[in-house]
TrEMBL record:
<dbReference type="InterPro" id="IPR011006">
    <property type="entry name" value="CheY-like_superfamily"/>
</dbReference>
<dbReference type="Pfam" id="PF01339">
    <property type="entry name" value="CheB_methylest"/>
</dbReference>
<dbReference type="GO" id="GO:0000156">
    <property type="term" value="F:phosphorelay response regulator activity"/>
</dbReference>
<dbReference type="GO" id="GO:0006935">
    <property type="term" value="P:chemotaxis"/>
</dbReference>
<keyword id="KW-0378">Hydrolase</keyword>
<dbReference type="InterPro" id="IPR000673">
    <property type="entry name" value="Sig_transdc_resp-reg_Me-estase"/>
</dbReference>
<dbReference type="InterPro" id="IPR035909">
    <property type="entry name" value="CheB_C"/>
</dbReference>
<feature type="domain" description="Response regulatory">
    <location>
        <begin position="1"/>
        <end position="56"/>
    </location>
</feature>
<protein>
    <recommendedName>
        <fullName>protein-glutamate methylesterase</fullName>
        <ecNumber>3.1.1.61</ecNumber>
    </recommendedName>
</protein>
<dbReference type="InterPro" id="IPR008248">
    <property type="entry name" value="CheB-like"/>
</dbReference>
<dbReference type="InterPro" id="IPR001789">
    <property type="entry name" value="Sig_transdc_resp-reg_receiver"/>
</dbReference>
<dbReference type="GO" id="GO:0005737">
    <property type="term" value="C:cytoplasm"/>
</dbReference>
<feature type="domain" description="CheB-type methylesterase">
    <location>
        <begin position="142"/>
        <end position="340"/>
    </location>
</feature>
<dbReference type="GO" id="GO:0008984">
    <property type="term" value="F:protein-glutamate methylesterase activity"/>
</dbReference>
<feature type="region of interest" description="Disordered">
    <location>
        <begin position="72"/>
        <end position="91"/>
    </location>
</feature>
Length: 344
């Protein structure tokens, strides 16, 4: 796979097998290297119905990836030569060029400095936007952040392998991740990310209390929630993880919406939501609920997504506060939370 990605970077690789339990480490490694997705082969029982579902998943995935590849090819052909450093010292990323056609009041970020330019820019205090990011709404940033919640699907293992090692272990808040993935694979993924990260990365366990500077990954094939209750004899609140086998939501288990809905109940404010590469609309309804509790939402830019489905759904619903490239996502999360860190 490494050789394929090196020699043919535009070739997408989708993996499938009939036994992912014994090959979990290899599957996760391939996904982190750049395989687009993994689809387990159907079990023998009710084979005809199962294979219909498998074919539908595969065809849908191939269609999305093919469309994404075509878009990237067109954009590459449309790119103009970079300006000479002797004639133009101002660097503006291709994504920022799109902002020129946006109405007055849109924030435009100049990549070299992070300083805003343009007519009537929206003013954001404290944590500046990172170079290359785009503000998509003038919503005020919460006074402090108490939790980071990440939702991701197709292309997620590779994206998380880029994001997680870039997060410092001093953020002071718990980080929760829902990655659409079958049972057993998330165990290997948590181990792999733990080796790459400054954080402690664990699979979520039912009943465990949330700790700051720990990353909790939803177990494959199960929903993960966050619940709260008052600690006996005090006014302090305990927040702990719940794991359940409730029916799939948005055809997913684990589902981002399930986690997000629970966070809307478990926290009164200070939720940083991050929606990354993936197909579908999982996360939109949960973000709508969290917005009533002081939620700020980052979405991954289209240019850096394997499949621009989940982020697009959030942007189209006007719930995204910033669009951030993958290679700058860790920096932006760190800037927001470090400046406005909560208690977890």
């Amino acid at each position: 796979l490494k050789n394929i990605k090196k020699s043919f970077p535009d070739v997408g690789v989708i993996m499938t097998s009939d036994d992912h339990t014994s090959q979990a480490d290899q599957i996760i490694q391939a996904l982190q290297i750049g395989a687009i997705d993994y689809l387990p082969k159907p079990l023998l029982q009710d084979k005809e119905k199962a294979y219909r579902g498998f074919r539908l998943q595969l065809v849908t995935l191939l269609g999305l990836v093919r469309g994404r590849k075509s878009t990237r090819t067109v954009k590459r052909l449309q790119k103009k030569p970079a300006p000479s450093p002797d004639t133009d010292k101002t660097i503006i990323s291709p994504s920022i060029e799109k902002e020129k056609s946006k109405p007055i009041g849109t924030l435009v970020v100049q990549p070299e400095t992070g300083i805003s330019f343009g007519p009537s820019p929206v003013q954001h205090d404290a944590a500046k936007t990172v170079p290359g990011s785009r503000n998509t709404s003038p919503v005020c940033i919460p006074f402090k952040f108490n939790v980071v919640a990440i939702g991701v699907s197709t292309g997620g293992p590779n994206a998380l392998a880029d994001l997680v090692p870039g997060l410092p272990n001093s953020l002071g808040v718990p980080i929760l991740i829902v990655q659409h993935m079958p049972e057993m694979l998330t165990t290997s993924m948590a181990i792999s990310l733990n080796k790459k990260s400054n954080h402690s990365v664990r699979e979520g366990v039912d009943g465990i209390e949330l700790e700051p500077n720990v990353i909790y990954l939803a177990p494959g094939g199960k929903h993960m929630t966050v619940n709260r209750e008052k600690k006996p004899g005090s006014n302090q609140v305990k927040r702990y993880i719940g794991i359940n086998n409730d029916p799939p939501v948005n055809s997913c288990r684990p589902a981002v919406d399930v986690l997000y809905r629970s966070l809307a109940d478990a926290y009164d404010s200070g939720i940083l939501a991050v929606i990354m590469t993936g197909m579908g609309m999982d996360g939109v309804k949960g973000i709508q609920m969290m917005k009533n509790k002081g939620c700020y939402c980052l979405t991954q830019t289209e240019e850096t997504c394997v499949v621009y489905g989940m982020p697009r759904s959030v942007v189209d619903a006007k719930l995204s506060d910033e669009e951030v490239p993958l290679d700058m996502m860790a920096e932006r999360i760190t800037a927001l939370v470090s400046t406005r860190g909560g208690t977890g």
